[in-house]
Amino acid sequence: MHQSRISFDPMLQKIRHRINFLLSYLRGFRYFFEDIQMRRKVIRKDFTIISSNCWGGKIYQDLGIQYLTPFVGCFLHAPCYIQLLKNFNEYLFSDLSFKKESKYAITNKLRSENGNYYPIGVLKNDVEIHFIYSKSEKEAETIWYRRRNRVNMENLFFSFTDRDLCSLSILEEFDNLPYPQKVVFTARNYPDIKSSVWIQDCQKDPFVPDLFTNAYLYKKYFDVADWLNGGNGKKN
Question: Taking the model in full, what pTM does it have?
Fold first, then answer.
């Protein structure tokens, strides 16, 4: 019986792997057609998404349009992001400088462990922007200013997640900001936070994962086209 189990387990693993691969393929096929539908549904494509991470870039990619935001290929810790949004115009159009180390110890530790010393940009000496995909400060600076010049201040959207040192008080601050089109994706249910979209698949996790890589998660609960057209984007 023991021999039979040893030979049977690898077979089960292989079957599970193939099933998961098939499900992943079918899911990708489904969302491919949903993206095509989204391109037809979105009325205005001159929008700017201000995002705390790469999620906004995913939307431009799905729609097949040019980035109209500098918040692509980077992320901000939640305390910095909320500081940016509370004084948005002032921070966005200030000069970008750089620093060698983050003010967040956990980030310095991760950069050291991974050997990934990507550029850290700074706005007004306190809001950090982590250019995780840029190879140099010069590259990050060039891309930042080029894309910042495309920002449409008349059609702004703001996205956020409960990761990167986020807290309940920061979520509440985000919800109270005077921006009509904003959304925050959370691993827990926050019925009092009107802009929150609960990713129920993550309810056992401390926060949502990277929603660029795991785009299928937010697509289950959020209609981007509806949001960009003025709705709240929440699926029933």
Answer: 0.86
